[in-house]
């Protein structure tokens, strides 16, 4: 019985690759140093999988920046602005595409399906000249072989590559990316020939776009591509790997009739439909790579349940054709539990990071072949049982409170226009009120003080004094700038989810549970392991302190339940909606405590609401329904005169505008850096909406200082579409990554622009 791993994290157990990359980018180490770190990481990963007994070990899943960018390099599809003139693509060109350089900006980066990983979007047009320009796939295959490990080379499949691309600037929108298929297949043939010559007997094509709802011409492209490759692939075992959702039924049919393909990898963790399709028929003689170990989470597998499922599948596809695998690449989970010194033994026993998942996959394969490691299985069963009944997981009061929520949709009694009137009487704001999104620059001093307090190197008193002075500085600055609705600047927060997670029960934090987000950047998601509650107020102390420093309204600043959920590793023993409702109740208590403390404007950030949107259309309405409901729960209890803001960091609203309106916030601030009038008309279409709207008037991701005229121009464009009494003036997002030398002049110009237009109105 065989085992397989779809892909593995590249960063290393202690983020070795991150530090090597950043040191190289800073000019502090050489290309050779970087290559050495990378080669050592690859070698240790291959060795670890080989030692664990994995049969099909992947290669070419390592990337210096991103696997899609690697495919772009392989195809020589370098946009002309990088001045590449041909030959093997080196670090210069590769990292320029990834990060930009002094004279050209980077290529666009976007989210990889519904994960928090970001890939570099290929830019293609009819004139791109493709050429085989990176031999990384074959080099890595040979490198592993030299170490005694025969691997399965992994390539992004040709159809997914095109479907994940965008037309280059200047190329007609109507240009069909799929029309490039014959051209890129020519390059794929060269790579395949190279891999064969090097001795590869398997090849894996990652085609995750197969889980999307594909129009028929896109689906046909798969048939075309893999029949075109048929003669090149002859003699190889060909695995098509899919992940992140169920396979639509028509796709399954097309896919399983591809002649050149000998094996299929399916994600059996997400959804249950694929399993039904397999049960209804699987092509005889082909391999099924059954993704039963979750690559998107950190929980120990339920080995007994997986074994049952695998035994069922064995009955369908045959003993020698079933391969135990992960649901997707392990890139999306943390690296190695062995480095977790902070977690206690009980919580540790419930978890499995990438290194542990490799062992689980192999244990399942062995068990299927009759060599079940009884001790390993019974320890796993005991851990599962302990998690079910642990008092740290179960909080009956919280569960009851969530059950009691059912039956109401939790809407504030008064409609938004009437609420805004009541709020205006209290707040007395000018037209086009100005505000910011929450954070002010996070200086090195600030980070140091937070760190020292955490490490107990300074006393609580010293810490509070320092933060108080920081808040005072931010408040005084905003008064000087004449901003209307102030913020305290969030100096006490390291991260908008971690700050709340650390103060709620049922949530744990790791020391090294890093997951790659993009390039060298990693995030450390909290682990929601039990029923969530809020033992005491989390932000009232600071918000009340900040309010006492000014007569102007001070916004209370919270992270919403859906964002906390979407940026965490979430328990899988209850629906995600249930967990979100628990968090919503905790935030509700906080909102009400803030109101009691005299805070009359409260912003509840839902930066990640869109991120949780399921990939399959059929599941989206259900998600939006409970997500929006959870948001409403947080503020259903406040008075009409309390103004609820929400903020979102994206402008892609076209398809979810009705849900945004359904959140029923009083004011919504959104990213709008590209001054997208389409976005505004989307909001206007919902004029019945009536709530305040603050589309960002300048981009905070860049150090550039926007001139007053430019901001005024943007505001005027917005006024052409939106009613003047609903428009707010604010930046795109929080200012924490900027410097005061940028923030002061930018906000000065922003306020000046608002004032100038108020006079004109
Ligand atoms: N209030 C947060 C801040 O300003 C919002 C951050 C975000 O939207 N990502 O930092
Ligand atoms: Zn934002």
TrEMBL record:
L-methionine binds at residues 437-439, 490, 605. InterPro entries: Cbl-indep_Met_Synth_N (IPR013215), Cobalamin-indep_Met_synthase (IPR006276), Met_Synth_C/arc (IPR002629), UROD/MetE-like_sf (IPR038071). This is 5-methyltetrahydropteroyltriglutamate--homocysteine S-methyltransferase. Residues 3-315 form the Cobalamin-independent methionine synthase MetE N-terminal domain. Keywords: Amino-acid biosynthesis, Metal-binding, Methionine biosynthesis, Methyltransferase, Transferase, Zinc. It comes from Acacia crassicarpa (northern wattle). It comes from the Eukaryota. GO terms for biological process: methylation. Its cofactor is Zn(2+).
């Amino acid at each position: 019985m065989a085992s397989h791993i779809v892909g593995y994290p590249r960063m290393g157990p202690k983020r070795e690759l991150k530090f090597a990359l950043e040191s190289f980018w800073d000019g502090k180490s050489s290309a050779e140093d970087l290559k050495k770190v990378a080669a050592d990481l690859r070698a240790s990963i291959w060795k670890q999988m080989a030692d664990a007994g994995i049969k099909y070990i992947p290669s070419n899943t390592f990337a210096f920046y991103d696997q899609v960018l690697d495919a772009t390099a392989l195809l020589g599809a370098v946009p002309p602005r990088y001045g590449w003139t041909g030959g093997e693509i080196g670090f210069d060109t590769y990292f320029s595409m990834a990060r930009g350089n002094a004279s050209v900006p980077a290529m666009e980066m976007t989210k990889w399906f519904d994960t928090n990983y970001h890939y570099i979007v290929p830019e293609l047009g009819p004139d791109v000249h493709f050429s085989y320009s990176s031999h990384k796939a074959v080099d890595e295959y040979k490198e592993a072989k030299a170490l005694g490990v025969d691997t399965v080379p992994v390539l992004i499949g040709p159809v997914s590559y095109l479907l994940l691309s965008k037309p280059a600037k200047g190329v007609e929108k109507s240009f069909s990316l799929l029309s490039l298929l014959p051209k890129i297949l020519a390059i794929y043939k060269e790579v395949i020939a190279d891999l064969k010559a090097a001795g590869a007997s398997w090849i894996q094509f990652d085609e995750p776009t197969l889980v999307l709802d594909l129009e028929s011409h896109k689906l046909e492209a798969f048939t075309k591509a893999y029949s075109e490759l048929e003669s090149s692939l002859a003699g190889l075992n060909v695995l098509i790997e899919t992940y992140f959702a169920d396979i639509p039924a028509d796709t399954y049919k097309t896919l399983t009739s591809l002649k050149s393909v000998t094996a299929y990898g399916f994600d059996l963790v997400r959804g249950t439909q694929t399993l039904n399709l397999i049960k209804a028929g699987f092509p005889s003689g082909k391999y099924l790579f059954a993704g039963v170990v979750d690559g998107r989470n950190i929980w120990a597998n339920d080995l007994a349940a997986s074994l049952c499922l695998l035994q069922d599948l064995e009955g369908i596809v045959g003993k020698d054709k079933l391969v135990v695998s992960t649901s997707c690449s392990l890139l999306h989970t943390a690296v190695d539990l062995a480095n977790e010194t902070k977690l206690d033994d009980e919580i540790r026993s419930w978890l499995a990071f990438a290194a542990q998942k490799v062992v689980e996959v192999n244990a399942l394969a062995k068990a299927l072949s009759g060599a079940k490691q009884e001790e390993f299985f019974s320890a796993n069963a005991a851990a599962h049982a302990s998690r079910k009944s642990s008092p740290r997981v179960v909080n009956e009061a919280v569960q009851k409170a969530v059950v009691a929520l059912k039956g109401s949709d939790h809407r504030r009694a008064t409609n938004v226009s009437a609420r805004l009137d009541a709020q205006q009487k209290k707040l007395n704001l000018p037209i086009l009120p100005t505000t910011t999104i929450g954070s002010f620059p996070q200086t090195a001093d600030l980070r140091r003080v937070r760190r020292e307090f955490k490490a107990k190197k300074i006393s609580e008193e010293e810490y509070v004094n320092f933060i108080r002075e920081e808040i005072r500085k931010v408040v005084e600055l905003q008064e000087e700038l004449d901003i209307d609705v102030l913020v305290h600047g969030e100096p006490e927060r390291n991260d908008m989810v971690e700050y709340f997670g650390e103060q709620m029960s049922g949530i744990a934090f790791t020391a090294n549970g890093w997951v790659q987000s993009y390039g060298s950047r990693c995030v450390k998601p909290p682990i929601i392991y039990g029923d969530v509650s809020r033992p005491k107020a989390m932000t009232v102390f600071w918000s009340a302190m900040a309010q006492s420093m000014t007569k102007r309204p001070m916004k209370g600043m919270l992270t919403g339940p859906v964002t906390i959920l979407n940026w965490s590793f979430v328990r899988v023993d209850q629906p995600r909606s249930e967990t979100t409702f628990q968090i919503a109740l905790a935030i509700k208590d906080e909102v009400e405590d803030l109101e009691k403390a005299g805070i009359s404007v409260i912003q509840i950030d839902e930066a990640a609401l869109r991120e949780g949107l399921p990939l399959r259309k059929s599941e989206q309405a259900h998600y939006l329904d409970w997500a929006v409901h959870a948001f409403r729960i947080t503020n259903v209890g406040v008075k009409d005169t309390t103004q609820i803001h929400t903020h979102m960091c994206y402008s892609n609203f076209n398809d979810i505008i009705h849900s945004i309106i359904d959140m029923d916030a009083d004011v919504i601030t959104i990213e709008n850096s590209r001054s997208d009038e389409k976005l505004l008309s989307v909001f206007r279409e919902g004029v019945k909406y009536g709530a305040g709207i603050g589309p960002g008037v300048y981009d905070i991701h860049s150090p550039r200082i926007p001139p007053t005229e430019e901001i005024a121009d943007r505001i005027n464009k917005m006024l052409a579409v939106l009613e003047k009494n609903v428009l707010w003036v604010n930046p795109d997002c929080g200012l924490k990554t900027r410097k005061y030398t940028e923030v002061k002049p930018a906000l000065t110009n922003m306020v000046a622009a608002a004032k100038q237009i108020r006079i004109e109105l």
